[in-house]
Amino acid sequence: MTKGPAERSVVRRPGGRAARVRARILAATTELVARDGIAGFRYEEVAELAGVHKTSVYRNWPDRATLVKEALLRFGEDMASLAETGELRRDLVDFLVALADGLATPTGRALALVAQSGHESAEVRRTVDAILAHRVVAVQRRVDRAVEQGELPPVDGYFFGELLCGPMYLHVLRGPRPFTREDAERITDVVLAGVRATGR
Amino acid sequence: MTKGPAERSVVRRPGGRAARVRARILAATTELVARDGIAGFRYEEVAELAGVHKTSVYRNWPDRATLVKEALLRFGEDMASLAETGELRRDLVDFLVALADGLATPTGRALALVAQSGHESAEVRRTVDAILAHRVVAVQRRVDRAVEQGELPPVDGYFFGELLCGPMYLHVLRGPRPFTREDAERITDVVLAGVRATGR
User: Fold this and answer.
1) Over chain B, what is the mean pLDDT?
2) CA B30, CA B37: separation in Å to the nearest integer?
3) How many angstroms from the chain centroid is the CA of residue A22?
4) Which residue range(s) make up the domain with B20?
5) Which of A1, B76, B174, B179 has the fewest CB atoms within 10 Å distance of its CB?
6) Which residue is closest to B192 within chain A, CA to CA?
7) Domain tally, chain B
8) What is the CATH number of the domain that holds B38?
């Protein structure tokens, strides 16, 4: 819950030295975007926070917009990974917990605000949409698979995603206490039972 | 969906001339807060938008913070009214549709952002919390009544409110198309069926 995006990305993605440097730069960018906004950060700060030389940032991302976009996409991807262990309930609960953890970080909160403000540029809007699309596609794919396997009646994956994620968003962004795994289980259970009972 | 808060309040609350003037002033204040933020509007603008003399505003609300607070509370109250017609499903669907309509207005959207930004003053924060509390209490009261009457198994009204409102919030704030009554019905049906099936 308190782990920063830098730590998350580095932990999750093994690879060579170049890959690790890239991951650190992207994570640092995400943190600075969350703190200062899309237009507010400087390449020097990214380099310092990532612990790399400034030229590493410039060489990999000569274009600032591309850097921001890749950083946010990476963050969104990490946040919305949905495993297929074969056990639907567990996969959904894990997904919801990971999403809540990501959303509770300053970056996640900033992204949620950008997504809703409607005041940002078209470019930013497209990036945020792409991040949200990751989440939607992840849920849809998992739900489609469950439908195929007869674990769920035919259901619109997008609608299912709203049913599952909506209560968690409200809780994380406004609730009086932190979101727990138990909360994720309660929501998942009601949604699964409701979709099965109504057959949609 | 496109009706402004001014119109909503005036339509919904009958009363004498003084009450109508107050309602118009509060509705105008809400609109200006949505446009310019809590600290951005001037009393002159409120008077102009409400079509009243400036002294009517000063006389009724010498204190600016009180004016903002009452305006937002009134807006929140109108937005989150939950009738008891005796038919649970219909009451919940009506509530969800009204909340979605309110949230889709510029004021509703602005309030949602303030509620989540966490950057505002403690005073603003308390006001927004009070508005959200209206909604929560409305759902809790209706759900408690349904439990008493055996229409629902014992369920935590706060949790129920998150299940019901969360998907609608996501849809209104981020969805690709407007929220419809059919959406409200689908959500309500799944939540009712899920709560009944899981017995919580």
Assistant:
1) 83
2) 10
3) 19
4) 5-67
5) A1
6) A194
7) 2
8) 1.10.10.60
More confident residue, B59 or A120: B59
CB contact, 8 Å: A169 with chain B?
Answer: yes
Q: State the average pLDDT over residues B27-51.
A: 86
Check: complex ipTM more than 0.85? no
**Interface residue A36 vs chain B (CB under 8 A):** no
Residue A174: which residues within 8 A CB-CB, separation 6 or more?
B115, B116, B132
> Smallest CA–CA separation between B131 and chain A, in Å?
12
Candidates B36, B99, B105, B116, partner chain A, best to mutate (most A CBs within 10 A) = B116
pLDDT of residue A177: 87
Among the candidates A72, A88, A103, a domain finishes at A72
C-alpha distance from A46 to closest chain B C-alpha (Å): 24
Per-residue confidence (pLDDT) for residue A5, from 0 to 100: 42
Query: Closest approach of chain B CAs to the CA of A132, in angstroms?
Result: 9
For the stretch A76-95, pLDDT in tens is 777 777 888 889 999 999 99
Q: Distance between CA atoms of B86 and B175, rounded to whole angstroms? A: 31
Are A86 and A161 in a shared domain? yes
